[in-house]
Design a protein that fits this description.
With 220 residues, the protein is of the alpha/beta class. It has two domains: 31 residues, no CATH class; 185 residues, Carbonic anhydrase (Beta-carbonic Anhydrase, Chain A), CATH 3.40.1050. The chain contains ten helices and six strands. A six-stranded mixed β-sheet has the order 2-1-3-4-5-6, with helices on one face.
């Protein structure tokens, strides 16, 4: 029960912060108008709202194992694709962020497949979306360590999801019109850094450096 009590105390803090002054929450009671769709991982350590210090109503969040976006096909999983469709076509968000992270269990399952349940293999079936990424990494980085391969796959899967987003005609059209922008972000749990993909440099570059780097820069 300790966990439940912690959650209840947390809700009381939420009440005090957001609900004690009616004006703060009045607009949200009428409906939502987020400007950003975040496609993140289910990992309990990587909460997009917590990581970005966002308030209620700031972002529409879709979370799944390994922050994957399936390509636009007739048999695409409706749970993820319907949420993306609603955010972009219904809520008219201005940007999409695919947020990946280090030490991703989904990518580990992709690189080292194993059944978690005897009767089903839902995780394995879901991760097949990123199978082209795994094959590419294993071919190009066959001589690298397992840890290096895993990180490369984590980063490459973000790019695959960005490419898959463009297979949806209503996303591609808005990107070409300049009314929707796609971003690829990577949270490095080990260092505490936040990286963003730069199409110009064709690599992930730091947006927020690790804490020790910031402390060093300040000292200098």
């Amino acid at each position: 029960m300790e966990a439940i009590e912690k959650f209840v105390r947390g809700f009381r803090r939420f009440q005090q912060q957001y609900l004690s002054e009616p004006a703060t929450f009045d607009s949200l009671r009428q409906g939502q108008n987020p400007g950003t769709l975040v496609i993140g991982c289910c990992d309990s350590r990587v909460d997009p709202v917590l990581l970005t210090g966002s308030d209620p109503g700031d972002m529409f969040v879709v979370r799944n194992i390994a922050n994957l976006v399936p390509p636009c096909t007739p048999d695409a999983p409706p749970g993820v694709t319907s949420a993306i469709e609603f955010a972009i076509c219904g809520l008219q968000v201005a940007r999409v962020i695919v947020l990946g992270h280090a030490r991703c269990g989904g990518i580990r399952a992709l690189m080292n497949p194993r059944r978690l349940a005897e009767e089903t293999d839902f995780v394995g079936r879901w991760m097949r979306i990123a199978e082209p990424v795994r094959l590419s990494v294993m071919q190009e980085l066959r001589d690298k360590t397992e840890e290096q391969q895993h990180k490369a796959c984590e980063l490459a899967s973000i790019l695959q999801s960005l490419d898959n987003l463009l297979t949806y005609p209503w996303i591609k059209r808005r990107v070409e019109e300049g009314t929707l922008v796609l971003h690829g972000w990577y949270f490095d749990i080990e260092s505490g850094a936040l990286l963003a993909y730069s199409p110009r440099q064709q690599e992930f570059l730091p947006m927020v450096c690790p804490l020790e780097d910031e402390a060093f820069a300040t000292a200098e």
